[in-house]
TrEMBL record:
<protein>
    <submittedName>
        <fullName>DegV family protein with EDD domain</fullName>
    </submittedName>
</protein>
<dbReference type="InterPro" id="IPR003797">
    <property type="entry name" value="DegV"/>
</dbReference>
<keyword id="KW-0446">Lipid-binding</keyword>
<dbReference type="InterPro" id="IPR050270">
    <property type="entry name" value="DegV_domain_contain"/>
</dbReference>
<dbReference type="Pfam" id="PF02645">
    <property type="entry name" value="DegV"/>
</dbReference>
<dbReference type="InterPro" id="IPR043168">
    <property type="entry name" value="DegV_C"/>
</dbReference>
<dbReference type="GO" id="GO:0008289">
    <property type="term" value="F:lipid binding"/>
</dbReference>
Length: 288
């Protein structure tokens, strides 16, 4: 009989409530600010991290989840009698975390040849960030709870990440430029002129879909881009940061256009905010 565990990393931005109630295993990114190091989701919540960012002149950095950390987790669940672990993890082109999960499984099997055919790890590269795979994590955990088989859960998760798109806007380009997501010169000019890029995340890639002049037009333009690409009738989510008013405006506009409300809201945590900044808004959806 299958005994299945879902795991993910803290850049999935699932809530602590879902993590606990759905028995999801979380591996957390380390965050460095100068000579101080923190563990995301452990040493602070999102609001506390936003305040730390506001008081820090530099740009915080993250470090990957190591193969050693994954191997320790595999050992734990193997001893507890699990047959299958399903991991849905951060974009492999933005972090080595996914590759480390694969390496850890190879090392684990070398140390436990008796586990072959008894213990399997299914690591899935989300090719994206935040709720784009956080949603798949939560739905996969619900499928485990409902008694679905491994093959069905893995197929669902892979199908979702294959078709999931994010349109979002960072309200300051300071962090995106420092992390290399946007050229520094373009970020400087954009901030000075009030030009906001609508970023598209899909299949590993972060690109600029279009630009908007002025913050007041951001919500409308994101909604328009989403409406052009979304598979109507499928669930969508709102991603946001430290500004709940913008979150609510985004949800209201999408509900007006689509005729149904978002299924969830994803507030970006430290691992995402270090690259996007604390103030963002956007929509996560399945493309048609």
């Amino acid at each position: 009989m299958e005994k299945i565990k879902i795991f993910t990393d803290s850049a999935s931005d699932i809530t602590r409530e879902n993590e606990k109630s759905l028995d999801i295993e979380m591996v957390n990114f380390n965050i460095a600010m100068g000579d101080r190091s923190y563990i995301s989701r452990v040493d602070f919540n999102n609001e506390e991290f936003y305040r730390l960012m506001a008081g820090y002149d530099g740009i915080p950095t993250t470090s990957q989840v190591t193969a050693f950390e994954f191997q320790e987790m595999y050992e734990k669940f193997y001893k507890e009698g699990y047959t299958d672990l399903i991991g849905i993890l951060i974009n492999s082109e933005g972090s080595a975390t996914y590759q480390n999960s694969l390496m850890a499984y190879k090392l684990f099997m070398e140390e436990h040849p008796e586990a072959e055919e008894k213990f399997r790890v299914h690591s899935i590269d989300s090719r994206s960030y935040t709720g784009a795979y956080g949603y798949a994590v939560i739905e996969a955990a619900k499928m485990v709870r409902d008694g679905k088989c491994v093959e069905e859960i893995v197929a669902f998760a892979k199908d979702w990440v294959d078709h999931c798109v994010i349109y979002f806007v960072p309200y300051t380009l300071k962090y995106a430029s420092k992390s290399g997501r946007i050229p520094s010169a373009a970020a400087f000019v954009g901030d000075k002129l009030g030009i906001k890029p609508i970023m598209r995340i899909y299949d590993h890639m972060i690109s600029t879909a279009l630009t908007v002049r002025g913050e007041k037009r951001v919500v409308k333009k994101i909604a328009e881009k989403t409406m052009a690409d979304i598979e109507k009738g499928t669930p969508y989510m709102i991603v946001y940061g430290d500004n709940t008013e913008i979150r609510d405006q985004m949800a209201e506009e999408m509900t007006r256009l689509l005729g149904y409300a978002p299924v969830d809201f994803y507030q970006i945590g430290a691992a995402i905010a270090v690259n996007a900044g604390p103030t963002v808004t956007g929509v996560i959806f399945k493309e048609k």
